[in-house]
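Trying the structure run again after the queue cleared.
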Amino acid sequence: MYKTLLLSIFTVFIVISGCSNKSTYSRKPVTNIQITPSNKIVTLGNDFTVNFHTKIKEGKIKKIDLLIDNQIIVTTTDLDFIKSFSTKNLLPGNHTIQTIAEKTDGVKASNYSTILIASDIVPKKSSFKIVNTYPHNPKYFTEGFNFTTDYFMKVRATMALPI
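Done. Tokens:
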């Protein structure tokens, strides 16, 4: 009887100690990245703005690193901040904006967004004029064109292959 009572008390102790409201793991911080302009396309030479907002369920923030293309641009402890960027040192194409938020207990979380830097060079518009057409065998097709820059631009078919 004494053993049964002792076993029951031990079992109740294990169940009570295992059912704690407190989480045994630390939650990761979450950073929201909002880019202006909202379509995330900026012409080379123009600036863009990034708004960062970090949420933490428990604990304190140690640091938040802001990276563009894997290079640290800013390190802060502010949960909310806005940063303006110039595109003059960026090449046209997609660029990755990343935040790495780290809490004082060592728990880290990353978030990513991309922005497209469009070229500031306006393409030269070209036009064409059909000078002549010739009958052809429909079993053949044109593989490519040859552009020459004579006084008048001429386009000639370079290859015809059977289908």
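The helical segments are 2-18. Worth checking whether this holds up in the mutant runs.
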